[in-house]
Design a protein that fits this description.
8 helices
Length: about 230
């Protein structure tokens, strides 16, 4: 089965040699996300996937993976062609193993980047989005050190988003030189709409160019001052 999956992934790179932008969503699905938060998160992710699928350029460039951490770390979906992405609702339960989740996401990214190189396919700077509504089970020292170093060297675009008043913004700040933002209420749809437009802009650029993101909608979904 694993060989079949790898074979499909390699064939996709050959049949579609467009430059890729890998986006890994690292999502907190711990018990504290139960109820309205997980419902709104599901709506937001669906919006994001649909928006990319409906963009004539981004749908050939964007590849999305999702890693969840709620009690256990789960690779909800490895990187794949967005047109093949079938989303099923996430459930909330358990603790907050953020360290293991981010390490798993980094492993997925490194594996996919190697596949790009082996296939001779160009790729944009990968993206990682880390979302959490509370404190991790223990400090994610190793994963935050790796992502911070990669982001500092422009090998990774890391975005950290706190959900609710109990989000540990100090911990989220350790993952990247980019300051973490706190979601305004439960406006996941606003964030994922911004994310989809940002990925669309990247996919229309030239690999290696710095893309200026449109942050005009930031006040609609984010609390700038923590």
């Amino acid at each position: 089965m694993q060989e079949d999956i790898l074979s499909i992934r390699k064939k996709e790179l050959i049949s579609n040699p467009a430059a890729r932008v890998a986006v890994c969503l690292v999502l907190d699905t711990s018990g504290s996300m139960s109820g309205a938060p997980i419902d709104e998160l599901n709506k937001g992710v669906k919006l994001f996937i649909d928006a990319i699928k409906n963009d004539d350029i981004a749908k050939y460039a964007a590849e999305v993976a999702i890693v969840t951490f709620g009690g256990n770390v789960e690779v909800y979906s490895d990187f794949q062609n967005i047109e093949n992405f079938s989303f099923r609702d996430l459930d909330a339960d358990g603790g907050t193993p953020m360290e293991e989740a981010v390490m798993q996401a980094l492993e997925l990214l490194e594996t996919r980047k190697k596949e790009y190189v082996d296939a001779g396919v160009d790729y944009y700077q990968p993206w990682m989005v880390i979302m959490s509504d509370g404190q991790p089970d223990y400090p994610p020292n190793q994963s935050s050190s790796i992502t911070y170093d990669m982001a500092s060297k422009r090998k990774l675009s890391c975005f950290q988003l706190g959900i609710g008043d109990q989000a540990d913004m100090q911990t989220l700040a350790k993952f990247s030189p980019r300051k973490p933002l706190r979601l305004k209420g439960l406006n996941f749809e606003g964030f994922f709409e911004w994310l989809s437009k940002s990925i669309q802009a990247v996919s229309q650029s030239t690999v290696g160019d710095e893309v200026k993101l449109d942050n005009s909608s930031l006040d609609d979904w984010a609390i700038i001052k923590n």
